[in-house]
Amino acid sequence: NAGVTQTPKFRILKIGQSMTLQCTQDMNHNYMYWYRQDPGMGLKLIYYSVGAGITDKGEVPNGYNVSRSTTEDFPLRLELAAPSQTSVYFCASRGAGGRQLGETQYFGPGTRLLVL
Amino acid sequence: AQKITQTQPGMFVQEKEAVTLDCTYDTSDPSYGLFWYKQPSSGEMIFLIYQGSYDQQNATEGRYSLNFQKARKSANLVISASQLGDSAMYFCAMREGRKGYSTLTFGKGTMLLVSP
User: Fold this and answer.
1) Which of A81, A94, B59, B78 has the least C-beta neighbours within 10 A?
2) What is the sign, positive or negative, of the torsion defined by CA atoms of A25, A38, A11, A63?
3) Can you say whether residue B105 is alpha, beta or left, with left for phi > 0 and alpha for psi between -120 and 50 degrees?
4) How far is residue B111 CA from its own chain's centroid?
């Protein structure tokens, strides 16, 4: 059981380039999330999805786009990379089960992005 | 106003001693959940413990317990018998909102260092 997987692990982008961060979960979770973590800070929510075809903005959505065509995948798209998007990106998912299991988000290993 | 406040940027504890990491929260939602996550130097986010706002008893998971004081809006993490492997960043987080559309808000974290 792989849980939540993210690719790539690390990427360097030039200003203005685009890329897609991949996130896949094999737990059949309805809910998926993208966060960014800046150095020395907590996580901030970028986008989330409550099911295939349904997405919504989080706290810091500017400069990003998402799509959710399947239950398993939730890619995050950066269209015009800027230095301010240098961060560690985490994908997470949760199920809709019982009290604690339905509440808890499980995280992928993260993607380190450096924009120069 | 910050929704999650962790006032201790860093904490030091000796191996085998207990340590308390502070977390206060701010919400007007009567239904909410509180989480603690551990982030070791390798970077992954590891779920530790969960407390629901309606739970009558404090949550416990092995050496971790959550000291939930609802009136004071605090949800401190207690680690008993610290181990060297407990050295990590610890984040408090809160879930608000309708369950299906709820999101997590994270604090800035506390760095815990356990010495031999």
Assistant:
1) B78
2) positive
3) beta
4) 12
Q: pLDDT per position in chain B (116 positions), as tens? A: 679 999 999 999 999 999 999 999 999 888 889 999 999 999 999 999 999 998 889 999 999 999 999 999 999 999 999 999 999 999 999 988 765 677 889 999 999 999 99
Residue A47 has which token pair?
């986008």
Cα(B97)–Cα(A93) distance, rounded to whole angstroms? 17
Contact B106/A102, CB-based, under 8 Å? no
Of A71, A106, A91, A70, give the one whose Cα is nearest residue A20: A91
Chain B positions with Cβ closer than 8 Å to A: 4, 33, 35, 37, 43-47, 50, 52, 91, 93, 95, 99-101, 103-109
Residue A61 to residue A85: CA distance in whole angstroms: 11
Q: How confident is the model over A73-116, as pLDDT tens digits?
A: 999 999 899 999 999 999 999 987 655 556 788 999 999 999 99
Chain A hits for B52, CB-CB cut-off 8 Å, are 99-100, 103
